[in-house]
Specification:
flat, 3-stranded mixed sheet, 3 helices, 26% strand
Length: 98
């Protein structure tokens, strides 16, 4: 997505919204010359969201650009909309140190 690389910076500079966010990706996700590494972009996004103190959880793996992992963890992710992420065993990103 053109301009998507701008979002982490904007997130760091903007007051957080009342959102609960779950990210899922694999290290073999898409890479192309036009948009770069989706894997690294998602990690940048996670760092920005954690810095802005969003309610954030993630699941990282080694899979590619597919839905295999999401299908397997979807029930847990849906529970995360009702319970804090740490209560259901999903990883909660620690607050970054400055």
């Amino acid at each position: 997505m053109r301009g998507g690389d701008q979002y982490p910076g904007l997130i760091r500079k903007t007051e957080p919204k009342p959102l609960r966010i779950f990210l899922e990706d694999g290290s073999a996700d898409t890479w192309n010359p036009a948009f770069g590494s989706w894997w690294l972009a998602n990690q940048d996004m996670e760092t920005a969201l954690a810095y802005a103190d969003y309610d954030l959880a993630h699941a990282w793996g080694t899979h590619g650009h597919d839905f295999s992992v999401m299908r397997a963890i979807l029930p847990e992710v849906l529970l995360a909309t009702k319970e804090p992420a740490e209560k259901i065993g999903l990883h909660q990103q620690p607050e970054p140190s400055l």
